[in-house]
Amino acid sequence: MKTIVVTNRKGGVGKTSTTHSLAHGLARLGRRVLMLDLDSQGHLSVWCEAPADAPTLAEVVSEKTALLEAKLSIYSDEDSGGTVDLIPGGDRLFLAEGEIERRHSIPQLWLKEQFELARTETYDVILMDCSPAVSVLWSAAIVAADWVIAPTEATGLGVEAVAELHVRLAQLSKLNAAVQLWGVVVTPYDARTNLGREAFEAFQEQANGSTVWPVRRNVKLSEAFGYRESIYQHAKDSAAAEDYGAIAAAIHKDLG
Questions:
Q1: What is the DSSP code (8-state) at residue 238?
Q2: Which of 31, 35, 46, 163 is the most exposed place for a label (fewest CB within 10 A)?
Q3: What is the reported pTM?
């Protein structure tokens, strides 16, 4: 099993779209995937149509429910047998972070300890969607992760954000020396512009051996969110489905 955190310190760069699309792409390849919505905005939970009264990670923090008791079944692929489950997030997480700090001497270890207590080995992959803010849950996700995937926009600010992520990973390495940047996802990417090409080259230079993946500009992703469908359900022949499908296939291969 691999735990993957999808993160960037900059907002609006496709973290939720990447998490949702990779989870469903992996399920189409037969993988059992658990998604965690660690964002108090809860956009991943909205996309998955999680009921408003469903338990969230906030209830796990307050010990009202165990981690896997809060999961919701989201998707099952009839052909491959792959599945996607979700543990919702949302605005209740805002107060839960203070609870983690009060209950734990090293709050950054909270999520890793939860994974060790729960039977998460029933999954092939855990994908964590984080808010852009550096917070207790953000740090806990990094400490609990094997791999980091960084969605980013193809701009100078995007390059700076990925550089900052490298610094943050180094700062947390004393709690998780094994975590590595698996890949950078440039979204949306337009190879026709000088800015896009230059930013893409900059990402490759700072990637330290990890792969830089382009996801082409495509309105179908926004439509898929609106229809509460995966990109593969909504527009299986779209550029976004092709690009995210390629990234999911690479993860699938690296899982062994």
A1: S
A2: 163
A3: 0.96
